Each structure stands twice: as C-alpha cells, then as structure tokens.
Amino acid sequence: SKAVKQIPEDDLSAAVEALKAQKKSSGVIDATVTDEADDEDNETKEIYTGPGSSADSEVIDAMFRVAELMSDPPATGGVTFAGFSSLPVIQLLSGEREFDLSNSELKECWANGSLGATRVDRNGFERVWKEVQDYFEDDIMGEARKEAKKQVSPKKKRGASKPTSGTPAPSTTIGENLSSDEVKTINERMKNLSNNEVDTVLEMMEKMDPAQEARLKAMGVDPALMQQTAQMLKDNPGMREQAKKMMENMSPEEMLAASQQAQKQMAGMSKEDVGKTLEQLKNPSLNKE
Q: What is the pTM of this model?
C-alpha cells in the first residue's frame, strides 16, 4: 500500500526480523511449557518408606507374627492365606469400591507372592505384602490408618440427613452364607443345648465386644436389644424354657425363616418400639390391651 511504500527499506527489514525473532521465541516458550507439563505428568509419586511404613522391616516382622497367630493351626509356623487376609491393614483396605483391594486382587497377590505355597515363611510373607503394596499409589500403612480414622470418627457431611433412632438396615441377611447342611447342624445344636450352655450363650450376649456388636449391626440387629433380651431370659427361667421348647419343634427351614423375619422386624424398630416389645414379652397380658 502507499503507507508501506513510504517506510524506509532499512526500517521495514528491521521490523520483519523482529517479528521473526518474536515468533521463534514464542515457539521456544510454548515448547518449554509443554515439556514441563509432560515432566509433571510422567513424574512418579514417591511412596513413603520410613519408620512405620509398609517397607519398614519392623512393621513387616510384626505383621508376620500376627498373621502367623491367625493361621490355623498356628503351632506349625508360617502364614496361610486366611491368616494374611485377617490382618487389620488388609481388612481396612479391602472392599468393593473402585480404590479398594478386591478379593480377586488379594488372591492374585497371594498367588504371586506365595509361589503356589499354602503356607509362607517370613520371606514369602514379605513377597505377598509387597504385592499388595504394588496395588496402591501410597503407603498401605498410611492408607490403612486413614481408613481406621474414618471408621472411628466419621465426619458429618453438609446436607446429610440426621440418623434415625431405629436400627440401621441390614447389610447382610442371617443365614445367606450358610449351606443347607450347615443350617441343619445349627438347628440340631440349638435343640440340644443344655441349660448350662444356654446360660453361657446368654452371658456371651450380655458381654459382647465391639467386633461382635459391629457384626450384629451389619445384620440389622440392635446389640442393646439383644443384651436386654438376654438379661430378660436369664431373669425369667419360664420364658427361657418356653423359647427352648419352641425351637425344639422347629425344622431347620422354619428356624432360619423365623430368624430372618425377626431381623426384618428389628431393622425398622425405634428405641420406643424396642422398649414396648420387651415389656410385652415380660408381661404377655399387655398384648390383650
């Protein structure tokens, strides 16, 4: 154009060279930024390996001893798959969520680390232990501690509904994992309980530990109701005898069905319902009102 023709040739050449230099510099900057981003993406996060971590030999020694004691029988030495699976760390990290260790993955870890053995020594245990660690991006001891903390002190979420006073819905159904033969065996065992054995069972119900209470809650059974029922049966020999005779006349299928029906009813009971039910059991005449 006319305006461009009026620019001195030297100035025009200088401007062109400046534009070229700017474009080249911009390309270098873009390439540098891209390379830095790629480096960040490709950088592997380092797993903590200090004291108290899964790599700590003292931790592995302690876990091996616990797993050895949990292996059946413990006297023969070594760790079985069941013993390894029972470790608190493994239990806390296992589950069905996307980031949990699934049962099939745990079995794969055992197969790879045990080299086909049914019981492993300290070295074999460490191989299986490291196989599990390889499934996680962070130290499994640290991850397990986080899960344990969540279970002990769950955080309240905004907008979450308040817990009801009733018993939580069951996550498992009574007898769902039992075969028909196992149901028959339990049925026969219940029918043949002596009075002393019944007393022992009731005492165990009254003195449940946290793990036993957790199992009952998972089945939708209120531990407090079970404890109150146990105390009531201990204080009322006639009622206890009546319950025993009723079980003696039940078939395995009837006993299982009755247990599952009771589970369903208890799942929706509030504290007021529990108290009313116990009073009706103590005083049958209240049912007529």
A: 0.42
